[in-house]
Design brief:
Layout: H1 5-48, H2 52-60, H3 68-94
Helix pairs in contact: 1-3, 2-3
Amino acid sequence: MGLDVDKINNTEQMVKRVVLKTLLAKVEEINRTVEDLKKSLGYFEKKYGMATETFYQEFIQGILDDNMDFFEWKATKDMLDELKIEKEALLGVLK
């Protein structure tokens, strides 16, 4: 019995389609989460009257107090930054 090359090729194509579909679904999930995180950042920016980048620098330098909102704001920005990196990595694989 020899190898069925057509069957192997069909299986490879099926696996590639499944992997591609999974990666695209993950990118879409990231996009939705990114939008939610951006809304949260907008809420904090409006509430405290400063841009997230300004807040972040002041927070990590210890200029701001230990307000629980500030910890949440920082965590939200950190998550957003991590998701952007993850998305870029996934898109790099898809190219």
